[in-house]
Amino acid sequence: MGRGRILAILAGLALTASLGAAQVTVVGTDSYPADVNNVQAAVLVPGATVLLSGVFNFGDSGQVVLAAPGVTLRGVFPGATIKGGLNPLRTVPEGVPVSGAKNLTIRNIRFEGWGGYAIYHAGVQDEGNRTLIEGNTFVNTRWPEDDPPTLGVHYCTGGGKAVIRKNRLVGTSLFAISTHDLTLHKDDFLLIEGNIIEDAHLDPLVVEVFGPAGGSPDHGPVIVRNNVIKISSDTPNPFVWGISLGTGYFGCAINNAIVEDNVITGRVCDGIVALPFGHGRKIVHNDLSGMTSFEAQIYSMGRKDLISGNKLGPVETFCEYGNFFSTAIALIAMEWSSFYPDTAPDTEPVTRNVLLANDYRRTGLEGWAFDANGDLASMGCVFLLSGVDAGWMDWWPGCEVTGNLIWEIGRFPAQGADRKPQVLEYPTHAHDNFILGQSAGGHWRLAAAGPGAGSTARRAAMTHREILARKLDSLRQKKVEWEGRR
Q1: 3 exposed, middle or buried (CB, 10 Å; 0-12, 13-18, 19+)?
Q2: Residue 343 has pLDDT above 70, yes or no
Q3: Among 199-203, 218-222, 408-412, 413-417, which is the least confidently predicted range?
Q4: Cα separation of 461 and 335, whole Å?
Q5: Fewest C-beta atoms under 10 Å: which of 175, 213, 276, 351?
Q6: What is the C-alpha to C-alpha distance for residues 296 and 285, in angstroms, rounded to an integer?
Q7: Does residue 149 have a cis bond before it (omega within 30 degrees)?
Q8: Contact 253, 244 (CB under 8 A)
Q9: What spatial distance separates the first Cα and last Cα of the chain, rounded to whole Å?
Q10: CA distance 74 to 127
Q11: Does 284 reside within a domain?
């Protein structure tokens, strides 16, 4: 009798002897489908603590459906590894939501070489739900040949409190941590904290709280803090967002979010993105100094956001993907349904946002300037723009960027005698903003830039629309591929 067969029998005996108790120990045998069957049997017991030890082989498509309430799945000494599988741990069997998988805990498990999401938690419609995903390690051993895409943790429940912390995710080809369609009641919260995301290839951290067809009511707090995100140097898709509050893939918006003390390194399209409909977001004390962007380091399309105390990194200008959005911080009014037809337009202006005490010294941005032909000669640090003025879309209620406070004092890049303005309002729908403390020659409305500047800048702005359209097309295609295998 082979060693693997003996281990399988011993694992089965241990499992059978323990099913009547609150705690179950399952020993991996590194054989498929025995490992899947053994773990599946253990998690059927409500309230069970399932201790995993050894190597579990889930094959190419094995998965365990977590459908009982109060289950804890935890790796124990000397460790537990789940190899392979297609969505190896999930709470939604074959796309059908279940209500029983509330109060789920997954801790200290290593995932290797899986397809789809390693952990797919969805379908719980219960305000009393509590979720903890902590201390796990996810290593994609299939890049760049991973097909379907390899993603990390996806949290998509209808209610409750969730903590996703101290996980390490390496080599994901799409989202490392993502949420979608959450219903966060006033007493609920989402905490994404202390995770390390390495060698990420596309949009490593995405947070979204409502579906794409409607508005976003106030909800419980969302906190994204102390995460370290390292973008891969070999990603084939350059249109990466480091942290996204809302996304064109799932929908838009999030309110009452705090994004603080995160570190992002590598090359991105944009660093931290706060998409339309949302308000009351605080993007503070993030370290982007090791991150290079070819568009904005941070941009917001909402209202009442605070962007303060962030260390900003280098901005590429005049690169192959265009240059008009090569800036550090941008406040933009965008009619999102022109990119995503199922999304209603945001009827409120981009207003009452505050930019305060950010550090631009590493950006390399010389200030806004146009040459004698009206072409952009250099870019500056802060940009206020409406999509109407850029020629992207027709007028709509909410197309204005107005009533924002930009109070940046003394932390712009050093300049010579020819000091250029670092803050640019693009009229006519970006207007009446409060711009204080600008030590580099005051702020600048584009109307003062000279003949031809408006039309030249408008043509250049179209590049951003093309970039965003290409990014969304890429994400939609991955979504189609993914749903075809799910």
Answers
A1: exposed
A2: no
A3: 413-417
A4: 15
A5: 213
A6: 17
A7: no
A8: no
A9: 37
A10: 24
A11: yes
Helices 3-18 & 34-42 angle (0-180, nearest 10): 10
CA dist., res. 33 & res. 35, Å (int): 6
Look at residue 455 and give its three-state secondary structure.
helix
**What amino acid occupies position 38?**
N
What separation in angstroms does the CA of 253 have from each of 5, 181, 226, 301?
A: 52, 11, 22, 9
Q: What is the mean pLDDT of the chain?
A: 82
Look up the domain containing 361 and give its range.
272-486
Distances (CA, A) of 161 to 106, 110, 183, 216, 409: 15, 24, 10, 18, 39
> Shortest CA distance to 368 belongs to which of 385, 351, 356?
385
C-alpha 355/C-alpha 52 separation (Å) is 48
Asked if omega into 97 is within 30° of 0 (cis), the reply is no
d(CA 162, CA 189): 6
In a domain, 339, yes or no: yes
- Taking the C-alpha atoms of residue 308 and residue 290, their distance in angstroms, rounded to an integer, is 18
Q: Is residue 48 part of a domain?
A: no
Q: How far is CA 412 from CA 143, 296, 311, 358, in A?
A: 40, 15, 11, 9
372 burial (CB, 10 Å; 0-12 / 13-18 / 19+) is exposed
Give 200-210 pLDDT, tens digit per residue.
Answer: 998 999 887 75
**Amino acid at residue number 337:** S
Q: Which two tokens stand for residue 281?
A: 């977001």
Q: Could you give phi then psi for residue 134, rounded to 5 degrees?
A: -145, 140
Q: Omega before 78 cis (within 30°)?
A: yes
E-state strands within 203-357? 205-207, 222-225, 228-231, 241-245, 257-260, 263-268, 270-274, 282-284, 291-293, 298-300, 306-308, 329-333, 354-356
Is 305 within a domain? yes
Number of domains in the chain: 1
φ, ψ of residue 326 in degrees (nearest 5): -80, 80
Look at strands 369-370 and 382-386 and give their pairing.
unpaired
